Amino acid sequence: MATTTASSPAGGRKPESRLALVRRARRMNRILAETYPDAHCELDFGTPFQLLVATVLSAQTTDVRVNLTTPQLFAKYPTPEDLAAADPEDVEAILKPTGFFRAKTKSVMGLSAALRDQFKGEVPGRLEDLVKLPGVGRKTANVVLGNAFDVPGITVDTHFGRLARRFAWTTEDDPVKVEQEVGTLIPRKDWTMLSHRLIWHGRRMCHARRPACGVCPLARLCPSFGEGPTDEETARKLVKPGPFS
């Protein structure tokens, strides 16, 4: 049986078999499911098109900011046809609060034109089609597939990648490789919810600089336990409620 090297909760190093890694990862997923039973996409949307645009807009800003911005955008431009034909300066003015608004305007208008011209105004339900749209990569495509089409997908954002490495599920930095490696540990049917759970945990408790280790439900299974405060009182003060970026 092949082995990988993982840190032990005590801070040492010990070999972990592939079977042990799979079992640990799946147990952690079950604990996260119990911890975050309401985990979901924190972008507001009513249609696949709205989710697609909102996800593109969420780059380098918070979901809260996007949710404050999209109602005005969709009220004025409810369909791909409408947005594709919009005045770019008007769209830029609406999107300015989200940051990088010129690039985002180009992306959302470009993907809208592509939907109009190539997909009869409908968002496709296949990853290979989605990633051909302007401004749409695998992360965005998996968000749309998982939350608008119920097609399982792993969304590797900064939180997911950080936690996957912190949990020693992978040592990769490349999001596509992280997606592939984690996908071999967790059943495909759980991929979308796993994404939500890791993102929620990363936003609320397992922070990049000071994770709340002392109150983390995964403490006994996490090889990085101790990167943050381990006493309960200090750790509890680090836990944040939602909503988040």
Oligomer category: single chain
Strand order of the largest sheet: 1-2
What's the overall geometry?
globular
Q: If classified by CATH, what would the architecture of the largest domain be? A: Orthogonal Bundle
The profile of the biggest β sheet is:
2 strands, antiparallel
**Which regions have little confidence, pLDDT < 50, spanning 5+ residues?**
1-11
Structural class category? mainly alpha
Tally of separate domains: 2
Provide the gyration radius in Å: 20 Å
Number of helices: 12
What are the SSEs and their pairings?
Blueprint lengths: L2 E5 L5 E5 H18 L12 H10 L5 H14 L3 H5 L3 H8 L5 H18 L8 H4 L7 H11 L9 H9 L8 H9 L7 H14 L27 H5 L9
Antiparallel strand pairs: 1-2
Helix pairs in contact: 2-8, 5-6, 9-11
What does this structure look like?
With 245 residues, the protein is mainly alpha-helical. It has two domains: 3-35 and 154-236, Helix-hairpin-Helix base-excision DNA repair enzymes (C-terminal) (Endonuclease Iii, domain 2, Orthogonal Bundle); 48-148, Endonuclease III, domain 1 (Orthogonal Bundle), CATH 1.10.340. The protein is built from twelve helices and two strands; from the N terminus they run E-E-H-H-H-H-H-H-H-H-H-H-H-H. The protein has helices spanning 18-35, 48-57, 63-76, 80-84, 88-95, 101-118, 127-130, 138-148, 158-166, 175-183, 191-204, 232-236, and strands at 3-7, 13-17. A hairpin with a 5-residue loop joins strand 1 (3-7) and strand 2. Helix 5 packs across helix 6 (101-118) and helix 9 crosses helix 11 (191-204). It is globular, with a radius of gyration of 20 Å. 39% of the residues are buried.
